[in-house]
């Protein structure tokens, strides 16, 4: 039985999440509220919300956990060519936190193969925008000729980044944003990006699964450390492609 959380109830230990033999592996709890304070507490414990319109707020902590280690990020030959062009051509920009709610809405509205609807509801947008205003959520955006063509958003506490969603309106536009984020995290020696659940797309970029206990152990250390800065542009991509940003 998954516990129902009242507004002041604490989360149960993540070890109580449903196991692989259940119909919903990783499901930990349900609630009616999605307060920013609840979100902050959840991420610090290795828990995240994922649900659809018409459902209660469902809280998850899967085992194993999908992560991307910045040092293991895979840059394919074709992506490297794209990144070189982005660095070289003035039409391309990487912006940070230019319009966080717009990035969330774009992630919600962009069609995805094999997926009907979106889990990024209006309540989700409101809650994460509140985190953004508090400096705890960020967007990385790919722009070409003054138009936002891709991007991603996520949550960041201490020396940890929790990836949430990406979108692309042009080929590789979301990968450009992710590559810039990874390069920035490498510069600041951030060891791990939380990707939550396994997808073939993330695996192709170097993502891998680790035991939940290892993820939570790293998380406890990382969120207790001072935060890293959130100012960068496309020049960080030079670190990935081994060329000058000029």
TrEMBL record:
The gene is aat. It comes from Caballeronia concitans. It is an enzyme of class 2 (transferase). Transmembrane segments: none annotated. HAMAP family: Leu_Phe_trans. NCBIfam families: aat. Belongs to the L/F-transferase family. Keywords: Acyltransferase, Cytoplasm, Transferase. Pfam families: Leu_Phe_trans. One of its GO terms (molecular function) is leucyl-tRNA--protein transferase activity. GO terms for cellular component: cytoplasm. It catalyses: L-phenylalanyl-tRNA(Phe) + an N-terminal L-alpha-aminoacyl-[protein] = an N-terminal L-phenylalanyl-L-alpha-aminoacyl-[protein] + tRNA(Phe); N-terminal L-arginyl-[protein] + L-leucyl-tRNA(Leu) = N-terminal L-leucyl-L-arginyl-[protein] + tRNA(Leu) + H(+); N-terminal L-lysyl-[protein] + L-leucyl-tRNA(Leu) = N-terminal L-leucyl-L-lysyl-[protein] + tRNA(Leu) + H(+). Functions in the N-end rule pathway of protein degradation where it conjugates Leu, Phe and, less efficiently, Met from aminoacyl-tRNAs to the N-termini of proteins containing an N-terminal arginine or lysine. Signal peptide: none annotated. InterPro entries: Acyl_CoA_acyltransferase (IPR016181), Leu/Phe-tRNA_Trfase (IPR004616), Leu/Phe-tRNA_Trfase_C (IPR042203), Leu/Phe-tRNA_Trfase_N (IPR042221). Its EC number is 2.3.2.6. This is Leucyl/phenylalanyl-tRNA--protein transferase. It is found in: Cytoplasm. The keyword Metal-binding does not apply. GO terms for biological process: protein catabolic process.
């Amino acid at each position: 039985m998954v516990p129902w959380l009242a507004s002041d109830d604490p989360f149960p230990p993540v070890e109580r999440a449903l196991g692989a033999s259940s119909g919903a592996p990783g499901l930990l709890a349900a609630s009616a509220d999605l307060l920013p304070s609840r979100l902050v507490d959840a991420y610090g414990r290795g828990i995240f919300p994922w649900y659809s319109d018409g459902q209660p707020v469902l809280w998850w902590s899967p085992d194993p956990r999908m992560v991307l280690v910045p040092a293991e990020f895979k840059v394919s030959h074709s992506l490297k060519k794209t990144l070189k062009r982005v660095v070289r051509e003035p039409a391309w920009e990487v912006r940070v936190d230019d319009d966080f709610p717009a990035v969330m809405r774009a992630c919600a509205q962009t069609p995805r193969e094999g997926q009907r609807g979106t889990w990024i509801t209006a309540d989700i947008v409101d809650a994460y925008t509140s985190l953004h205003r508090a400096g705890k959520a960020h967007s990385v955006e790919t722009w070409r000729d003054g138009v936002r063509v891709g991007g991603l958003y996520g949550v960041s506490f201490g020396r940890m980044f929790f990836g949430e969603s990406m979108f692309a309106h042009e080929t590789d536009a979301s990968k450009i944003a992710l590559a810039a984020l990874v390069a920035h995290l490498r510069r600041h020696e951030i060891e791990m990006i939380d990707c939550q659940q396994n997808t073939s797309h993330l695996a192709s970029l170097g993502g891998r699964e680790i035991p939940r206990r290892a993820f939570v152990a790293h998380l406890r250390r990382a969120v207790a450390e001072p935060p890293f800065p959130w100012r960068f542009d496309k020049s960080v991509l030079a670190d990935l492609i081994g060329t000058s940003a000029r």
